[in-house]
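Q: Convert this sequence to structure tokens.
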Amino acid sequence: MISENFIVKDWRKIDFSFGLVYPNVYKLGMSSYSIRLLYFLINSFENIVCERIFLPDNLKLKFPASKDYSSKNYLRSLENKVLPEEFDILGFSLHYENDFKNVLWMLEKAEIPLTSQERQEVITKSKVQLPIIIGGGPVVTSNPIPLSKIFDVLFIGDAEQTLKLFLEIFQVYKNSRKKLLEEISQIEGIYIPKLNNKAKRAILKNVDDSPNPIFQLISESPGEKSIFEKNFFVEVNRGCPYQCKFCISSFHNYPFRNRSFENIINIIENGIKYSNCETISLIGSCVSSHPKFKQICEFIINTKKRLTIPSIRIEHLTPDIIQLLEQADIKTITIAPEAGSESLRFALGKMISNEKIINVLTQIRNSQIRNVKLYFLIGLPEEKEENIEDIINLLKSLDQLGFGRNSLRVNINPFVPKLNTPYEKEIFFYLKDNMRDLVKKYQKLERELKKLNTTKLKFKNFKSIVKNAKIQTIFSLGNQQVSDLLLSYYSNGATLAAMQKAQNELNFSINEYFLTIKECYSPWII
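A:
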């Protein structure tokens, strides 16, 4: 791997070390702006070394790690090949509930006890040093409770100022775990499960105060298709102004905040100067809501660098924006209608008509942009059988527009309720007697949509998709009992069968727990 802008420090000249962990493989981790930002922020302290740790590539994991016979040497930091247990702090960036099992695998492979209590017992009894285990990210802000038995410290909300205060306090109390936890529990935005302190979500009021890294990690993997490796990321905004009822960004990351146009231009200019990038990637939940989105894109195009954007609001795809993206040589646009039914879509908070979608895709078809990714949800609140027909009928209408074969890449995912959003109680389709309905919906969609020449379906193995979505839902909405369930699920192999075995061992019923959620029980309120 060819790499630039790595930060390699002399461990003899630092006060403490921070292992920055993304609990999945390198390519996924490096597609995360959070990893680049945290790496930059922590290494900006001269007395702290921060090195990255990912899951081993090209290694099929066996759960639990005690039954995985690969060498623990696979799990070392990229920069200095340091083992996880040799760091003073291990900080996990968590974006998806599906990665929870990977957190446990990495800890066990590193021979670090899985729970905070077990680690404290080892420290007290054996007088050995173990890293303090901390975590943050969208799923932690949404609901840290399922992770409460595992982590020592959990960050709620924006991390910039909170992390700085944490590191300053750690410097003083790193040799006294008890005093350290007491001191940092006073920081707004930090939750200490052992102390069960009241944590308030930390909010960075001005995105300009977040230092978008100029020296970004740029890498290239020979012989492999790179994903975001040679991209320079620019955070345009945080949060989302539209407040779709299922979306964690709208409700866990409010208020909506734009970085200033002047700051963005300065970042791009310096990024091109100091990072050998090929592409400028705009980052944000709704980049097209920036009041100077068009001017930002025009500036990037004029630098002769490639431009990429995330999913874009359909109503923002005006003829001049489509022409601009065409000029940027963008080959694929990503949109999220979410539903085929206008009434269902309006109920979500997306006030976009089917006529508008068809008109916009007609304009795209008449441009040089050849592909469109479309994201839909099924299992939405109040969804009826005819709403599945609505998805089919909408895609049949788009099929008539004249796109090429497989040009419409269709992703259909089960709706997963998130705590502290308006749809947090909507678990109907994950109740035991209703899950088969989700599978039937998938079967019908596949049967009808595979007939369309323009449509490429990006889903398969429906039963597995639905069961995994149920597991994701229990971790999304879970309480401290679900923290025990997670540990048992992992130790039994982290499979669908393992979840049933874990329920039996703990005399816990996911179905009954979902019914308590439906009756307005909430384990965590931010």
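The chain is about 40% helix and 15% strand.
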